[in-house]
Amino acid sequence: MRLRIILAVSLLLSVALNAALVGYGYTLYRIRPLALLSDPIPPQMLEALSSRLPGGADQFLSERLEANRPELEAERAGYRSALERAAGLIEADVVDTDAVKAAIAEARTYRSRMGDVYVDTFVEMIAALPQAQRQKMVERFRKR
Fold first, then answer.
1. How far is it between the farthest Cα atoms of the chain?
2. Alpha carbon distance 56, 72 (integer Å)
3. Phi and psi of 28, rounded to 5°?
4. Backbone angles phi, psi at 54, to 5 degrees
5. What is the pTM of this model?
6. Residue 3 burial (C-beta neighbours within 10 Å; 0-12, 13-18, 19+)
7. CA 107 to chain CA mean position, Å
């Protein structure tokens, strides 16, 4: 009888612990969803960067990124297309390794161009900041 009670309590504790872990995982996902494979610069990275910027620099960066959105979306579409092409080639009965490599290389080119737009936008924002704000920004980056 005592063994049955111990097993029942162990089972209940196990179920409760599993439910708590699933809830915790779901909460983390809701707070910070996983980055999509087709989005090489996760929005969380941009949010983390913006949160470190002094004064109105975060707003300026957001405005510049919004202005560059059409270019970013075009590069992102090409990136996704190249990844889809690579995925289709990988799913084939016989894998054409040269074609897969070419599709991945094309995806990397699109990803690189997206990165260039982000870097150019960031540098534009930095150039527009007064020297005191740039110095404060550098100090914040060094502290973290």
1. 77
2. 23
3. -60, -40
4. -80, 160
5. 0.62
6. exposed
7. 16
